[in-house]
Amino acid sequence: MSKTFYIINEHELLRIGTASYIEKNSDWKSLGDAPDIEKAFSDFESFAKNGEMPSVVISDLNFYGKDTGFELVKRFHELYPQQKIIVYSMFFAPGIVQNAIQSGACGYVSKNATSNELLACMEKALLRHLSNDEIAEKMNLKKRAVENYISAIYEKTNIIDRAELIRRFG
Q1: Which residue of 15, 29, 54, 130 pairs with 134 in a disulfide if CB–CB is 3.0 to 4.6 A?
Q2: Which residue has the higher pLDDT, 45 or 99?
Q3: Which of 105-112's residues contact partners 24+ apart within 8 Å by CB, and which partners?
Q4: Tell me, which fold does domain 3-128 have in CATH?
């Protein structure tokens, strides 16, 4: 499975620079970008027709006073429920992060984060609904190590199973 991404951000330099960094420093490939919501949805209509959806969408929250990024995430989630969306924004207040996740984003990265943190968030977005075997294979770990990590997460969060973990943390 190839790992692909698509960036939505009104700033051309940020779109190009982020895509360039990701492609140069990982095995991810860009499927394109958009400066606004209209172009993004137009591109996604084409992706859907061609059967080649990006693995992850990286989207800002602000678009020149038009629809907010929250509305974009909600619309994407309604039209393409399997699409993984990471919000990449300069705003990092807890209420904003929570609103993004409740709108359907699977991750949130501050623009103050390191490039490696963005790449890690992209990788985690792909691991969300995988089995322990699939996670172990993708992360080059033994299945038992994955089981131990998941058990530790359950213990620290007082969660009893994966379904509850996904419900609580997306």
Answers
A1: 130
A2: 45
A3: 105/73, 105/170, 106/170
A4: Rossmann fold (3.40.50)
Instruction: Copy the structure tokens of residue 108.
Output: 């949130």
> By three-state DSSP, how is residue 10 classified?
coil
SS3 category, 47: helix
Q: Provide the CA 13 distance to its chain's centre, in angstroms.
A: 20
Rg over alpha carbons for the chain, rounded to the nearest Å, is 16
> How far does CA 84 lie from the centroid of its chain?
5
Domain ranges in the chain are 3-128, 129-170
Beta strands in the chain (DSSP E): 3-8, 28-34, 56-59, 84-89, 107-110
- Classify 54 as helix, strand or coil: coil
Q: What is the pTM of this model?
A: 0.76
Nearest CA to 122 out of 168, 87, 78 is that of: 87
pLDDT digits (tens, 9 = 90+) for 104-150: 888 889 888 888 889 988 988 887 667 788 777 877 788 888 788 77
pLDDT in tens, 143-158: 888 788 777 777 777 7
